Known about the structure:
Blueprint: E1 6-7, H1 9-25, H2 30-35, E2 38-40, E3 45-48, H3 50-75
Parallel strand pairs: 1-3
Antiparallel strand pairs: 2-3
Amino acid sequence: MDKTFKLTDGVIAHVVKLLQLGLLEGTDITDHFRRVTLIADEEGQLYLSGDYESSFNESLEKMQQFINEQSNKEKQGE
């Protein structure tokens, strides 16, 4: 019999974030989904891997910092 898996609420929330990110950026989200790595526990629950989650959050923080910098430059008339 095949093993079945179930997404945890954290993974589902992350999928929503990826969809929102794609809408905000106006980009194809396919590559975002390809990078997702999941870990299964003994009950078949799927979780985001720690490395992926850290990398994603770091990337998101850099993007937010860039947006803030650009916004500040616009306010200062640069």
